[in-house]
Amino acid sequence: MSSTPKDPRSAAERARDTAGIVGSLRHEGYVPAPEAEAIHQRADRGEITTEEAIELFRQRALERDAELTRKRRPTEQTAGVSATTRVSLDELLEALEYVSSVGFDTGDAAAYISRDTGSVYFVGTDMEPEEDAPEDLESPDRYIAVPSKQELDLGKRVALAFAEAHLPEQYGRIRAIFSHPRAYARFKALLEERDQLAAWYEFENGAQREALSDWCAAQGFEPV
């Protein structure tokens, strides 16, 4: 006897949602690889949900990033980084917000972490350089750029997870919101209407801390 698919959507709904995900990713410069196509096919057959497929993509991105980092610095001794280098999670959250809002789509802002000390440095075209900022921040052997919310998949995925946990009756409406421009403004307006804005900010903060902690672990840092 065949098992019941995990995804309750119809074949047409699954195909539509999968096409939407692929379209969004291709718009951002994504080129499907065989492994990625396999994930899309599993979602299309209903073996995994759309949210599970997105989580698989996020994990693959983290693994690729960690592999690239290892190739850049063959040994810990050569790179001068300790496996227990500590970095402030609060500072990372501030840096995440900075690079995601100020420098989003423009590259006008960035933040870097010292592999040696865990210090975080902010740089941008509209701000004065920090007094103690090193001149070689773009050297990958000594510093690493803080990723944006987009790079950590902290957008639509987190909003839908919040909807599923706090506003299940509005899940379909919220998913539709993210198919249109100005999605976040519409999403937050709905949350305010439902008196869920404070709960959302707490949920989003927790998701960001978890994603940054995972990213730190992949890069050899200890978030504190």
Explained architecture:
With 224 residues, this protein is mainly α. Among the domains are: 7-75, no CATH class; 76-148, no CATH class. It has helices at residues 11-27, 34-45, 50-72, 76-79, 89-101, 156-166, 171-177, 183-193, 197-219; strands at residues 85-87, 109-114, 120-124, 143-145, 221-223. The chain has a three-stranded antiparallel sheet with strand order 3-2-4, with helices on one face. Strands 1-5 form a two-stranded parallel ribbon. Helix 1 runs antiparallel to helix 2. The longest helix has 23 residues, at 50-72. The model is unreliable at 25-32 and 71-82 (pLDDT under 50).
Summarize the structure.
By secondary structure, the chain is mainly α.
Assess the beta-strand content as a share of residues.
5-15%
- Major beta-sheet overview: 3 strands, antiparallel
Average pLDDT works out at 77
Helical stretch count?
9
- What is the total tally of β strands? 5
Helical/strand content category:
mainly alpha
| H/E element order | HHHHEHEEEHHHHE
The strands making up the biggest β-sheet line up spatially as 3-2-4
Distance between the termini: 50 Å
